[in-house]
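Proteins fold reproducibly. Take a sample protein:
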Amino acid sequence: MVEKKMKKTVRMAGPGKRVIKHRVLPRELPELKELTPETINETITGIQKAIRENYVFPEQADDLCRSLEGHYAIGDYDRITDPKTLCEQLTQHLRDVVNDKHLQVLLPKDMPHIGRRAVQKPSDRQRIVEHGLTKVEILPGNVGYINVTMFNPLSDSADRINGAMQFVKNTDALIIDLRKCRGGSADSINFHLSYFFDPQTPLTLVETYFRPHNQTFRCQTTRTPFHYAKPVFVLTSGFTFSGAEHFAFALKIHKRATLVGANTGGGAHPVAIIGLDTGLLFKVPIGRTYDPETNEDWEGTGVAPDIRCPEDDALTEALNDTKK
């Protein structure tokens, strides 16, 4: 039966507030169990439960679950003794059913920051945050440049975003480099985006539907210390993914930036990371981010640049365009 979506629209939280918890983890992750037919079956059962309860497209849940059951029944996992190989096989068999790059089975060591965050106190987390704003400078021609490799939670990064934007406040154009960015937290993305729109008129940038909450969150602009109104260029690559695509997509559909480089990776679905009883992690898409005017997103297709060029040439191309 297709789940009826009783959507409730709410405004995205402002700075320092989180609207949804994306990780569903126990206080301590269980020890990785030895691979046996029983533990593999237990892993598949855990994945199926997570899909049926959380996957953003419930109409596809049965096909995904049947695929894993079918591969298990014909012995495709019988000879696997390496947990990483099992993760890769399960991931591939899920993606064979749906073109969703966020569906993934992982080992805890593949996401070490998840394991640490599961057991550390909030006061200790700052020590392990690698700030995603890695470079801020003024290039020749009075062009600002900000390199972003990760959008960390706003509680960790608001001061750095403010500092970076203050540094480039008086430039004649701004380049934001997302070529090495794999995404991050929606609250941070939304706050940074808000600098580029009129603070007097709240604007819905995109909407994100979350299935577990059966709600639609409106990603609206929020107040920032000032409004950056000069031209903006965003550099993209095939590595640009998830939340970084959200950032680029929002600026593009509202005609607030020129995208330069290559097509992005194509991951439009926010995820939950669920700890399975066998010690593995399962990353499952629980939402969908889209343009509320057209219902379009970038899942599987990526965000297309306005100026297409090899990613290594994107900065030069953007600088040339600032001179026009």
In short: Residues 1-23, 113-130 have pLDDT under 50 and may be disordered. The longest strand covers residues 133-139.
